[in-house]
Design goal:
The N and C termini lie far apart (about 45 Å). The protein contains two helices and seven strands; from the N terminus they run E-E-E-E-H-E-E-E-H. With about 80 residues, it is of the alpha/beta class. The strands form two sheets. Strands 2, 3, 4, 6 and 7 form a five-stranded mixed sheet that branches.
């Protein structure tokens, strides 16, 4: 079992993997040194990784790696 910094467990993940939206029910995400190491079914991830910090979000949707990279011109001018 590999030790990691953070484990996130939630009932809904949208990963954009595969076809469609990459929906994953009852999933978990392993994070180490600020990088996502693995995402998959919670039973699989919990067996493969160990973390002292586990974020259980029973009513949330997780969008791993989501970065809002767009910017409006007004925001740029304010800098």
């Amino acid at each position: 079992m590999e030790k990691i910094d953070l484990m996130v467990k939630a009932p809904h993940f949208y990963t954009m993997a595969g076809q469609g939206l990459g929906y994953l029910a009852d999933g978990a995400m392993a994070v180490d040194s600020g990088k996502i190491k693995a995402i998959g079914p919670s039973t699989q991830i919990l067996k493969a990784y160990q973390s002292e910090q586990i974020l259980e979000r029973p009513c949330h949707l997780v969008l791993p790696g989501f970065i809002d990279a767009h910017m409006h011109m007004v925001d740029a001018l304010m800098r």
